Amino acid sequence: MMLSDEQRMVRDSIREFMDEEIAPDLPEADRDPLSKADAIDYMQKMAEIDVGPYAEERFDDPLTSTIVSEEVSRVWPSLQVTMGMSLPVTMFEIFSERTREAYAEEWETDRLVGCFAITEPAGGSDTKVPNTTATKDGDEYVITGEKTWVSNAPIADIALVVAWDDEHDQRDMFLVDQKTAGFETRPLEKLGWKGSPTGQLFFDECRIPQENKLSRAVMEAMSDGRMDPSESSFATGGGAGGNPLNTMFASMRNGMAAISVGIMQAAYEAALEYATDREVFEKPIGQHQLVQEKLYNIRAGLETGRLLTRHTAQMIDAGDPDARMLSSLSKGWVCEKSVDVTDDAMQIYGGNGLSTEYPLERYYRDARTMTIPDGTTEIQKLVVGYELTDMQAYT
């Protein structure tokens, strides 16, 4: 897939920045979850190159955003996850005056951290009918429920929460902030993405203004000119069934595939360098047939995954009817392929692949983590099957 001159320039400049400014901090920076202060510092640094929630001019078109995600994830997937899950910060101005006043200082100084609260303990990948409820009470909503495996949960100021809107008998998203509504958090440990903090959220009758309902906030922002419908994936259904939530989920799923492409790129570069430098039996191991077979498989997985992910980004941007199906296809296939690719790369390293002194064990852990968040591979297969046959294999 040919990139424009501008997209190649973006790719090259971000790669240079990541190699020079971020990579030297690794692997130490990824050993433990980022503190709130450290996460803010990194996001402020990334804003210097127009990347992340604090950037004044972000790369908003899906294809360029995909390229950005690939390049950041090539060096540090945890940082990309932390930035991506803080996306609610970019919508802060469309929500209620109560929330905006409470966080005016954090907003002005780029010290606001957000998260998406979707997955529930009893629901897992089933997000169609959440147990978390939003009950209308006068000009407020009362949010009650529990979320789990939420990236940024332990450090978040604001949470965009998927809940069941009792008044309209459908799911929606609601902004709950820590200062005026309050919510409890508990950190969780995990296999990969070690640098990205993850946790549970508990909402015990948290009261929020009705203006913090996403669908209402978007419509009001469009009507008074604060939001341009052509520039917001939250305001248009595109190819995801005419539903802003479906469009957002499609973008998030394909975003996970883009992170996996970045991990595969890193594993490929490391494996190729090691295969040409490492010598056994008086010749580079890359000269052995079985090592060359693994390099073949690694490069094939990388190139195929990159093409599928970028093609899906273009379909989301075009509002193509197949965008929802393609986003599940890319999320499922590319994330699984990243496990295969990093496994092959680790095998090329032999015993050194298991050592924390080399990067392959981190690439493998991060790749293995990719197959579960934002919908497991099994769920993605069912979504694709439904889109292809119009027959639902799940209820």
Low-confidence stretches: 235-241
> First CA to last CA: what distance?
38 Å
Query: How does CATH name the architecture of the largest domain?
Result: Up-down Bundle
Output the radius of gyration.
Answer: 21 Å
Average per-residue pLDDT, rounded, comes to 93
Helix percent band: 40-55%
Q: What is the total domain count?
A: 3
Task: Specify the number of helices.
Answer: 12
Query: Largest sheet, described in full?
Result: 7 strands, mixed
Strand content: 5-15%
**CATH topology assignment of the largest domain:** Butyryl-CoA Dehydrogenase, subunit A, domain 3
Q: Which word captures the global form?
A: globular
Class by alpha and beta content: alpha+beta
User: CATH class of the largest domain, anyone?
Assistant: Mainly Alpha
Count of DSSP strands: 9
Domain Acyl-CoA dehydrogenase/oxidase N-terminal: 4-91
Keywords: FAD, Flavoprotein, Oxidoreductase
Cofactor: FAD
GO molecular function: acyl-CoA dehydrogenase activity; flavin adenine dinucleotide binding
